Amino acid sequence: MASAYADGMYVLACLVVFLLAYGLTIVLTSVGYHRALAHGAVQLHPLARRALVTLGPWVTGFDAKTWVVMHRLHHRHSDTPDDPHSPVNVGFRGLFKAQLDGYARIQQALVNGDPDVTSLGRDLELSWPVRSGRWYVPYLVQVAVGLVVAVTMGWWLGIALVAGLMSHVVQGAIINYFGHAHGGRNFDTDDNSRNNHPAAWLVLGEGFQNNHHRYPSSARFSYRWREIDLGFVVCRVLEQLRVLRVVEKTLMPRPA
User: Which of 28, 62, 133, 240 has the highest count of CB atoms within 10 angstroms of its CB?
Assistant: First the structure.
């Protein structure tokens, strides 16, 4: 009985660690990289902004400037052949590769100073790992931390931690595929953006892509009452903590 209880507690601990790491990653990307840096829908406190740009890559694995430029290119060329990660072009099977290839290509263009790409990210700086040519170091650090946890506290706990921290690629694929392939539409936009509720539940409201593409500067991605944007709830909590301020004037209107 005691062994079964201990095993159950260990499984629960692994789940909690995974969810905390997963949640931290998606908060940094959805609230920080996306709503704050890419669109200015929320304004971060200067210290929070500096911490996000400096420390964000060590948690998410993604350089903030590269991520933001890639996302701005996505909005500029949404679901056209120039979109860096549209399922319209590559389907579901090709989406992971398209995301990684697009990210690597844009990052190299930023390092090389390509004016067509750098013009979309003048408000941000490349992180140290990218500037130094050691873009892979954050991933090595994540794996090293996971190994320490695995050796000292159990292998599955270490795997849960690393899986949660490296989950952004999967989170991105969920949004980019289901948010541009399956779901309803509140607005007649020029792209194939969709509102997908399961994707929104999994990734803090990001699945409401049709709403977001119609009002990209809105910190709230939900339009109708039945659309739940947990990312906006996080924004309101962080606003109370004075970490950020929601730009109220850019919020999308509610339906009449």
Answer: 62
54 and 127 in contact (C-beta within 8 Å)? yes
Closest CA to 197 of 235, 234, 230, 164: 230
Question: Do 53 and 125 form a contact (C-beta atoms < 8 A)?
Answer: yes
Q: What is the DSSP string of 185-214?
A: -SS--SS---B-HHHHHHTTTTTBHHHHHH
Closest CA relative to residue 138, chosen from 168, 113, 115, 160: 168
Asked if 234 and 204 count as a contact pair (C-beta separation under 8 A), the reply is yes
Region of residue 43 (left: phi > 0; alpha: psi -120 to 50; beta: else): beta
Q: Report domain extents, the chain.
A: 2-250
3-state SS assignment for residue 246: strand
pTM: 0.94
CA distances from 159 to 19, 22, 23, 111, 151 (A): 12, 12, 16, 32, 11
- Give the burial string for 81-100 (b: 16+ CB within 10 Å, else e): eebbbbbeebeeeebbebbe
CA 154, 157, 161, 164: dihedral to nearest 10 degrees? 150
pLDDT at 3 over 80: no
Confidence of residue 7 (pLDDT cuts 50, 70, 90): confident
Give the DSSP letter of residue 16.
H
